[in-house]
Amino acid sequence: MVDKPHLDEEALAELQDVMENEFPTLIQTYLNDSKERIEGLKAAMDGGDADAFAKTAHSFKGSCINIGAPRLGALCREAETAGQNERLGEVPPVLDAIQEEFQQVTDALNRLMAQGLEPERKQ
Amino acid sequence: MDESAAESDPLKILIADDSDSDRLILKTMLNRLGHQVLDAADGQEAVALFRSGAPDIVLLDARMPAMDGMEAAREIKRLAGERLVPLVFITSLSDAEDLARCLEAGGDGFLSKPYNRVMIKAKVNAFNRMRLMHQALSDQRDLMHERNRQLLEEQHVARRVFDNVAHTGCLNAPNIRYHGSPLSVFSGDVLFASPRPAGGMLIFTGDFTGHGLPAAIGAMPIAETFYGMASKGFDGSDILQEINQKLVRILPKDMFCCGAMVEADFAQNQLRVWNGGLPDGWLVRSSAANYRLPSRHLPLGILNADQFNAEMEAIRTRPGDRLLLMTDGVLECSNEKGQFFGEQGVRRAVEDLGSARHPFDTLMAGIRRFTGRKKFGDDLTLCCLEMVDEAGLVTLAEGAAPSTLAGPTEWKCVYEIQGSTLGEFSPLPLMLHICMEVPGLRRKSGEIYTLLSELYNNALEHGVLELPSDWKYTPEGFGRYYSERSTRLCEVSGHYIRFSFHHEPMQWGGRLKVVCEDSGQGFDFQNHPVLQATEMAQSGPRYSGRGLVLLKRLAESIRFHEQGNRVEIAYDWYF
User: Fold this and answer.
1) Predicted local distance difference test score (pLDDT) of residue B344
2) What would the pLDDT profile of A72-96 be if each residue is shown by its tens digit?
3) Chain A interface residues (partner B, CB cutoff 8 A)
4) How far is B33 from chain A (nearest CA, A)?
């Protein structure tokens, strides 16, 4: 897990290129979406619903990969596998890791946004 | 449609993904490529948008809430029907079984996360090409179906027109049996039969080179000519000449029509036959050996009028004699070994006839036995005419009620033909036509034609040509009569036959007076048995018993003048 970076700079650069001035909206959308997913994962774990847990983890994984957060994506994949195998007992440490990593990603993205917006501010 | 332009046309693309950020990325990428995007957050919404928006391509996340991607895919494919709407699954699935399920649900391919601009552009283009190719194929298929439908419809309309022109005439008469098996909507064979105004029948059967539309087009003028002329009283030879001339003019060089014309006179028990290019006809006789009627002429539509010989062979018959006519199809019937039924097959069937069996049934049974089939391959026409007494009764139906238009009621007319014209031309149709201008006479065309033809034939054959009618009553004399008739017709000169008509209105309807004069020797009408006795006696030297009896029956009065070469009749018609 440690070999994957928090953010894939290259992927984010491309996204920034594609989204142009909608890039901040995309990041905001991702962050909001992800908060909801984490809440969904908690609820599924508490409710003992392994299937819902796996599905939510799967979707979360997809958006992480797309946004360029590979380490968080990998953690989601771990969570998905646990859900698929109906081993919800193994889930709490993974979920903790996801929350911790999400915080890292949020900070990194906010930093990136601040940097990315700087040139505009200078104008 | 220009394909290259079509390929770069903007598309309407439906995307469905429950992840808001992923949807935003994909939508933006597709918009940047110039496409219009409909986006849905779950399966249900995707199906609804597919229904309302009719997109060209669908990109669908495999796992979604409300309706999962697989289920949405099945529903979308069902809604698309025959239209190919490429359906691409967006997936980060990697399990082979999961991917296989996507394809089974109707997916045409995959797009994996993370999204890559280059890959998305290439995929959309590839699936659009597939869509366009399918569209082109379906359009061509639809066009072909439509063309085919149009063609069939046109053929059916043409068939209706054709059937109206080339109707079956009096083929349903009890003394005619026939079989026709058209290969397609139009067969290259024709078979027409028409009663003659003065009794008797004309039958024409023909076989065009080729099948289908070209053959049917050639058959139309033949039908038109045959029925038109037959009802006006023209004889077989006249009609053959007209048909030949028409076909020479309209048909391409490599197209012609083999045919046979039969003129049946039931009252005189006589057949006149012309065969140009059809297989041998057969006269099946109960009391004498069967008589073969081979083709003696080239088919119709080949020779110019001056080379064409429409002379018909006259044959004496008896009631019960049956004439078989057939087209090539009969001879060309083949069995499993590829052998043809051929002339031998026909000859065998005709010779094997038991007295009880109808030759038509025997021949049809023979063909069925030979081919081992109920249906036959080629155009096959077989027609059998029986000589009977009653058949003479099949005459043209009395036409419609007289028109409210009065037409000519008081008129006179003299028509005289002279010299060599007597040998070349029959004035009967023209004279009948003049009389038919009177509405009251139109309903009586059969009787008028009979009167005129009796008068004319007697004036010509007995008055001008001086042929003794009693010759016709022995088999040897019969042949001699007709060969002598042809010979003398060629040499006739200095003679005339003159018809004078006078029509006047009467309280009860009208009266037509006809005077027929000829330049012949006349005859001793004073001592003619029919003119003396009320009942029919044997034939006399000039008017045959039958002819005179007919005249007496149809006309109000009949008078002979001079030496018997001037006959005057009066014919009354009633409202």
Assistant:
1) 87
2) 999 999 999 999 999 988 899 999 9
3) 11, 14-15, 18-19, 22, 25-26, 29-30, 32-33, 55, 58-59, 61-63, 65-68
4) 11
Asked whether the ipTM of the predicted complex exceeds the cut of 0.90, the reply is no
Q: What is the pLDDT of residue B533?
A: 47
pLDDT score of B516? 94
Which of B15, B22, B97, B116 should be substituted to probe chain A, the one whose Cβ sees the most A Cβ atoms within 10 Å?
A: B22
Q: What is the mean pLDDT of residues A32-55?
A: 94
Give DSSP secondary structure letters for B290-309: -EEE---SPPBTSS-TTT--
In a domain, residue A4? The reply is no
B67 DSSP assignment: S
Per-residue model confidence (pLDDT) at position B67 = 74
Kindly list the distances between the CA atom of residue B200 and the CA atoms of B236, B386, B395, in Å, as whole numbers in the listed order: 12, 12, 8
Count of structural domains within chain B: 3
Please give the distance of CA A94 from its chain centroid, rounded to a whole number: 13
* Mode of pairing for the β-strands spanning B381-386 and B322-326: antiparallel
B243 with B300: CB under 8 angstroms?
A: yes
- On whether the CB atoms of residues B521 and B563 are closer than 8 A, the answer is yes
Query: Rounded to an integer, what is the distance from CA B110 to the centroid of its chain?
Result: 61
Domain range holding B433?
A: 411-574
pLDDT in the model for residue A98: 96
* Angstrom distance (rounded) from CA B497 to CA B455: 10
Whether residues B133 and B180 share a domain: the answer is: no
User: Could you give the 3-state DSSP secondary structure of residue B97?
Assistant: helix
The two beta strands, B109-112 and B176-180, are unpaired
Residue ranges, chain B, pLDDT below 50: 1-5, 182-184, 391-404, 533-542
What pLDDT does residue B524 have? 63
Q: Which SS3 state, helix, strand or coil, does residue B560 take? A: strand
A59·B32 Cβ contact <8 A: no
Q: Are B19 and A33 in contact (CB under 8 A)?
A: yes
- The predicted structure's pLDDT at residue B527: 62
Q: Total domain count for chain A?
A: 1
> Which domain covers residue A80, as residue numbers?
24-115
Is residue A11 in some structural domain? no
Helix (H) or strand (E) holding A32: helix A23-47
Say if A52 falls within a structural domain.
yes
- The distance of Cα B348 from the centroid of its chain, to the nearest Å, equals 31
Nearest CA in chain A to B62: A59
